[in-house]
Amino acid sequence: MTKDLARKLVDVGMGRLEADLCIANAEVVDVYNRTTFLTDVYIIDGFIAAFKGKVRARETIDAKGRYLVPGLIDAHCHIESSHLSPSAFSDAVVPYGTTTVIADPHEICNVAGLDALDYMLKASENIPLSVFYMFPSCVPATPFENAGAVLLAGDIEKRIDNPRILGLGEMMNYPGIVYGDEQVYDKLESAYKRKKNIDGHSPAIEGNVLDAYTACRITTDHECATPEELRERVRRGMYVMLRQGTACKNVTTLVKGVDEGNSSRVLFCTDDRQPQSIEREGHINYGVNLAIKEGLSPLMAISMATLNAATCYGLSDRGAIAPGLRADFFLTEKLDDLQPEEVFILGKAVARGGKIIRKAPHTVPEKVSGMMDVKDFSAERLKLKLSSDRVNCIDIIPGGVVTGRSIRCVKRDSEGCFVHDPGMDILKLAVIERHHGTGNIGLALISGYGMTDGAVATSIAHDSHNIIVIGSDDEDMAVAVNELIRLGGGITMVKNSKVLMSHRLEIAGLMTDESEEEVVRTLDEMHEVAEAELRVSPEIDPFMTLCFMALPVIPELKLTDTGLFDVTAFKHIPNEAE
Amino acid sequence: MTKDLARKLVDVGMGRLEADLCIANAEVVDVYNRTTFLTDVYIIDGFIAAFKGKVRARETIDAKGRYLVPGLIDAHCHIESSHLSPSAFSDAVVPYGTTTVIADPHEICNVAGLDALDYMLKASENIPLSVFYMFPSCVPATPFENAGAVLLAGDIEKRIDNPRILGLGEMMNYPGIVYGDEQVYDKLESAYKRKKNIDGHSPAIEGNVLDAYTACRITTDHECATPEELRERVRRGMYVMLRQGTACKNVTTLVKGVDEGNSSRVLFCTDDRQPQSIEREGHINYGVNLAIKEGLSPLMAISMATLNAATCYGLSDRGAIAPGLRADFFLTEKLDDLQPEEVFILGKAVARGGKIIRKAPHTVPEKVSGMMDVKDFSAERLKLKLSSDRVNCIDIIPGGVVTGRSIRCVKRDSEGCFVHDPGMDILKLAVIERHHGTGNIGLALISGYGMTDGAVATSIAHDSHNIIVIGSDDEDMAVAVNELIRLGGGITMVKNSKVLMSHRLEIAGLMTDESEEEVVRTLDEMHEVAEAELRVSPEIDPFMTLCFMALPVIPELKLTDTGLFDVTAFKHIPNEAE
What we know:
Oligomer: homodimer
């Protein structure tokens, strides 16, 4: 708020100045009292000035008794998971009533560090969606791989005073907290000094470890798995998020732990939501609707998705429909199934009937384009020489990101190199460092992907986002890698040395400025091709599965650019079995 | 929070470091979930480290299953109303479980401006009670009197960055807001720039005036009179306070407007609570207990008096019992009648069985002592010359601070001066400017006080706190005024030119560093003397009534140092009736 704005709002309220807009006859959702009331809402300069009264407006929209709901807030998301640039992401989610997101640019910062953060800030500056950021706390995620950047406490100090950076992003390194890692505490201190939030990430921890973690005043958690865990975290002062992502979904489970007593400490988030999920189901409204179907009162659910998130993150200019707040809201027919018919941000209609009215302005991703620094690459480098034909094999488990492991016997050629056997579902997996031209290539063997012939490669490979490629044939794999380098990142499929189809992700190898519709169309078609042409197992998502095979914090065997990694033993192991 | 403290808390939680204290077997009130649970609470360096677990402690207190309740927060009070210095106030309220207050030093700042604020800050620095302040927004309250200081926006800028100043104090000047007073908006801007709170004061306003007032993002209101007003204010984003002061009490009325939907937006406060009320009834716990008696669930009421206040004022280190928070709490037998048996602040026992364990350290009130700059005073100056014997008379109305008015015929002497008639209940009232030696004296006539013989004077006279004196005889009145000047402020009673008894208020003429017990004993005795010796009407409080006779914002006739004031017409009028 500023005094000049306050003056204008008061002038409108007192009838001395004409409002820009009036939403008349709206059944306003009052999240403070958790009730609704019929009124007119007057807006000037993007803010709400007054309710019903002796006020004039230049333009009036008759809501005809429909519900006017405060703009929804996604309390934690990674925009990168949508494959969309911030502007295309805005176009995708705003029609569903999401008007504010708190995003952790953890993925792109793993690729490009502060340049990535600066790009994300700039690219979301002048778009309808309000985007706030948390400074990623864990870049890189582990020391067992090479990411594009290392962000230390000193880097946090350089940016955290930005008013759009609300604090420190999800603190995944809970061992660093409970065992006293100096760097981790220096990062916490940056947030403490500014009284900014610290997002948590504490799957399955409990008892005194949870005490220790929360004693550091970690503000939120979005990794609860049970109603009991929710209550234990709320008890320690955390705001807990009900998450409805594409892979991780816990609204229906966690909602059973929410009651009148603790509902003011519960928020909604999407975390990682793929573009197809957004297009087909919606965004935060989908989670809210699901919670309502599970029995949560609509007014409680809406308060959680609006006021609570605003309170948690200190966003005092939003989260409700009241004088002095931003005119971010939407009209909907039903309160128990939020399907926004008309969405307003700062008092301007921005989406109607599920479609954006005008596309958000695109920001050229200068410093985060073409980030493919791969040296010395050739098919030759994919050769996997083995000293034994008994190997450790990564076993894909459908439906999750955890892998199994097995010991298998494989074919070798005269030089001792692995040879693909079409009768056996064992493929070669490679992770190629792409950030610093180190020439690092990690190689391993993997089963469960199903592909009989060809290669699939992507530059989305959590959390370091090196290139990951799977294939039956070194030549196809090399073509796929080279195609990604040419595209500046993306997903590609190759067969018989020919590129079948690609999805270009030119922004840091993670995102594109194509529209959600285009991205969804491409991905849908690629899924069909993967199954029809490459015979990838229909039980798995050919691309998302691949993205998680390089993540060395999720059991059991994973591959990084520095080699095969045993997550349980927390060390690298050879491909040859003991 | 700091990283060093966080480290220590974690070390205790992980069993690597011994805690200072363990409160064992406590039924902890979990205000986040609104439930209770049996646990042990471990404390180090004044903060809570962990619950039950493999933790050691140097000292253990067995709670034997009693309830452990977070320290109560008074969301709005004027310490001056207790007549006690901050340290004596701490001693008085801490035994009732109040561990934090948000105080508006409006009264003392009317006397001594920034010096007063600095004194209040310093005097509450090293006492058990946490005292935060709101910068008084309306000093002086009106331009129709001379206060000791004028505080402008520039003064606010000088102090508002102090972390113990949480924002702008109760904005009583609502006409200034709705009619666009420049100075008022400059004051608001000081709070806006720091994202600090602005306390409200909006009795009876509604509709578009309330819209305009709340559009300025006024954060709180403690002047609601009905459940409907409460809901209307909450609807506009205000936190509403249930107030239980000595004169203004609305817990029992307002609690009917609180429900599961809006309870997270409701707080408790005392506003103005006299020392006798504190000693006989309690402090915030009294309001909480009253709300519970009226049907509010104990857990909801406790959450309102703790977590909600902490959330509203951004006090993220308190408001609950959880790891990482201050160890401010108390043990009590019953949850539906909070009678603290042992109170802890920063993990130290500070009160037991309703008594403070060790008195809080006193700060010498250097710059705010002996503030009695009265020039040219003598009984002579109290002469009230009238050009007619028909006069405007202030009529005291028992039980409130509003006055009536009447036209009366009085006796005059040969010079035309008013003469007291023992058969007629009309006394002389004088307000003597005491801040700048202006020599201003306002004179008027008043009925309803009942006194037959003598004089009563006090330096508490809202809001400018000049000396106010009432009497039947100029000589007695002069003795009373001179006694106050000698004492440096207080309350005094005089008869036959002799001081009967005095209550010394040496700190700015408003407060004393005597203990609450001493003050209550003195005041009780003075009440008896006033009735027995001076024959003050038993229907009124002889001192509180007097304190409000100079407040020119409450109808109908009042007296300031510049003369008789018609509050309805908002102008001075002569003593002679038309």
